[in-house]
Amino acid sequence: MEMTRLGKTGLMVSRVSMGCIPIQRISTEAAVTLLRQAYDLGVNFYDTAHVYTDSEAKIGLAFSHGIRQNVIIATKALCTTYERTMEQLEESLRRLKTDYIDIYQWHNPEVISADFPNEHGPYQAMQDAQKAGKIRFIGITNHHVARAKFAMESGAFSTLQFPFSLLSTKEELDLSFLCLDHDMGVIGMKGMCGGLLEDGRLPFLFLNQYPHIVPIWGVEKLSELSQFINLLHNPEPFTPEMQTEVEKLRAEHGDEFCRACGYCLPCPAEIPIPFSMRALTIIKRGAMMGDQFTPNRVAEMQRIDHCIECRDCVSRCPYHLDVPRLLKVQQAGYMKLYHNRQ
Ligand code: SF4
Ligand code: SF4
């Protein structure tokens, strides 16, 4: 397996690494089997988070017996206080069945105050945990270019995790090079554009042009992981035809593309925004997601009528999407398709 140096951490991580959101969707037995198969294939870097339900526990079960020291585990704390960060850390250690975490990341903070290293908050908790030997390196994850830049320039973090994919803008891709200047490790999330794409070939070959970015591929089947590993072992050049395909996808999804990150939630009208914002794309992409016209799905799309235009979702969306307007566009297209089926 080809390895990449993860910035100033000095950690050498596999070019194909794993994001462990999808293992929440499979049984414990299947997840443990998949994680061990990944390990046997040379994958040594696994990213999870305290909020990913049973993902940490599944990793703990897979790697606790004699393997722990051979793998690099990153997890995240979604906290705003010192005390809560410490609590989440202890819980993550228990679930992961380990006494240290390689990279502990501040999980997508919505606010990073100007003087955060000197405040009694999440960052100081991480520093204290690092002094106590419970954390090796401190990282941060984010979806905002400006906030990520601020974090990077603070010099307080060893890694940045950010969405990098073929739909990334130039400004976003430039951010990855700025990380290089600061010797920060660059961890790429959402390489499959938040589930928008199904086949890994184009997303992989696009990101393979940026060897300093370590993509963490979210997989739930060995076949998905094997595709990335085969592409790594049998590299193909990124051709002008592939670039044309990327441009087509960018034109199709433009600036109004929902990444399904869920940061806009909760919605007071209980609209499942990440799903509803992509209703038409999911239908267009085919049968992968099952029947999109069940009574339940139709009722969910009809809930858009209950939007009270509070715009809380807009202020939370890292991509500044005009969610209420886009939801109505999705609803109109969806209902048209639904009625045409009747
Ligand atoms: S503006 Fe509408 S969709 Fe957005 S949070 Fe408010 S009620 Fe929900
Ligand atoms: S609307 Fe924005 S915050 Fe909500 S899921 Fe989509 S991209 Fe994420």
Topology readout:
Blueprint: E1 3-5, E2 12-14, E3 17-19, H1 28-40, E4 45-47, H2 55-63, E5 72-77, H3 82-96, E6 101-106, H4 122-131, E7 135-141, H5 145-154, E8 159-163, H6 170-181, E9 185-189, H7 201-207, E10 213-218, H8 222-233, H9 240-253, H10 273-276, H11 279-284, H12 295-302, H13 312-316, H14 323-341
Parallel strand pairs: 3-4, 3-10, 4-5, 5-6, 6-7, 7-8, 8-9, 9-10
Antiparallel strand pairs: 1-2
Helix pairs in contact: 1-2, 2-3, 3-4, 5-6
CATH architecture assignment of the largest domain: Alpha-Beta Barrel
Tell me roughly what share of residues is in helical segments: 40-55%
- Report the bound ligands by name, code or SMILES: iron/sulfur cluster
Number of helices: 14
Q: How would you describe this structure to a colleague?
A:
By secondary structure, this protein is of the alpha/beta class. The chain has 2 domains: 243 residues, TIM Barrel (Alpha-Beta Barrel); 69 residues, no CATH class. 42% of the residues lie in helices and 14% in strands. The strands form 2 sheets. It has an 8-stranded parallel barrel with strand order 3-4-5-6-7-8-9-10, surrounded by 4 helices. Strands 1-2 form a two-stranded antiparallel ribbon. α1 crosses α2, α2 packs across α3 and α5 runs parallel beside α6. The longest helix is centred in the C-terminal third of the chain and has 19 residues. The termini are far apart. The model has no long low-confidence stretch (mean pLDDT 92). One iron/sulfur cluster binds next to α13 and α14. One iron/sulfur cluster (SF4) binds next to α13 and α14.
